[in-house]
Amino acid sequence: MNLYNFLYFFVLPILSLSVMLVFVRFIKGPSIVDRVIALDLLITIGIAIIAVYSIITNQSTFLDIAMILALIAFLGTVAFSYYLEKREKNG
Fold this sequence. Notes:
Blueprint: H1 3-28, H2 32-57, H3 61-90
Helix pairs in contact: 1-2, 2-3
């Protein structure tokens, strides 16, 4: 078994299953914090899928896209935590 078969038959199905499970948590999340964490995890799984696709197609440009997406996800999480902190101080 080479790397490409491993990625196609093992890694991508696991990532697909995890996307479905996290999306269920995103829809059913009892609170807004659960939904934001699920959205952050969906973006992280998307980054992993982009990285696997970059390895399969042997194009490193997709890794740059994954890095930008990771930066946007991190800044979104920081902004949401800042919002929660300000909301607790006001209420």
